[in-house]
Every structure is written in structure tokens, then in C-alpha cells.
Amino acid sequence: MSFAEYWDLLEKAEYKIDYYEHEAIAMSYENEAHSEMVTEFSHLLKGIFPRTDLQYKVHNSNRPIYIQEWDQVVFSPDGSVVTQPPVYFEYRPGMTVETTPFLVFEVLFKSMRKYDLGEKLPCYKKIPGLQYILYIDLERPWVTVYERQGAHSWMDVEYTNLEAAFDIQGHTLRLQDIYLNVF
Description:
The protein is α+β, with helices and mostly antiparallel strands. It has helices at 3-12, 32-48, 113-124, 175-178, and strands spanning 17-20, 23-26, 56-60, 65-67, 73-75, 79-83, 88-92, 95-98, 101-108, 132-137, 143-150, 153-159, 165-168, 171-174.
């Protein structure tokens, strides 16, 4: 599929579609547990990056990200925090996607795990301003935080205990808050 065909499809689609390696990739059905986890984690991020913070804005999966550093790649992470003022890629008037994510997160579940970790992760790491990539497992307490250490280096730490915590921008996030009422 060409990049132009992707935008035509995206404009008409009733579901999220990524564009990777010249293919349109339909995002799978979102079950209730996935939806709840995405909503809850987005709420935690809003506590770190409130609406009054003019430097960042929290987005849900309906705001795709264009990865300029790869050949025409558009992903829809489960959520993102984007630096402000926004810098858009505008394919055609009114059809914009974000280009300056500061943080992206994916909630992992069986049908998308390989795609999220295999295809998306290397692409995300190429985004110059991206500082954090978080993977949150839906089936067990397990969060992996990738934090940029330099222009081309990342540190990743896995957290698997509900008592564990990690920092984002000096704010502590606890696994027990992320997995509240799940385990």
C-alpha cells in the first residue's frame, strides 16, 4: 500500500491503523481490561503532566505519531505525552499527526505483544525528542521503562513487583497504582 493510499484509508476507517513497511496494520479489538488499563495509566500521566503544564500534553491512542526518522511510519501508541507547542506532520489539510512525543506507552496483550516490542520499539527509539517508552503488561505486574541516556543510547529497567516504583520527570509511579484493582 502506498503512503497516499494509507491516508485515504485512515480518513475513512472506523478503527486505528498503523502504517509500517508500506502496509496498513489494523489495530486489534480492545477488550475491557486493556481499555481500563490505558485509561488509568493516562490518568496517572495527567497527574504528572496536568493541563496547566504548557510544555506537555497527554494524548490517547487517537493521536498517531509520524516517525520521520523511518521511511513513512505512522504508529498509534496506546498513549503519549507530546511536547508543546505541537509540531505536526500534515499529509493533507486537516490530517495531522504528532511528531514530537516525549513519552509513549503501550499496554501489552497477547495479540499485539510481538508487534509492539518487535516492530514499534526500534522505530520509537529513533525519535530524537522521545525520552521515555513504557510497556505495561496486561496479564501480570510487569512494566518496562526505556529511558533515553544519550542521543543513541537507552537504559531499560523491568519492574515486576507491585511494591516497585519508578520515576518520570521526578514523579514517582508505583506499580500498585498502575495495577489498582487488577491483581
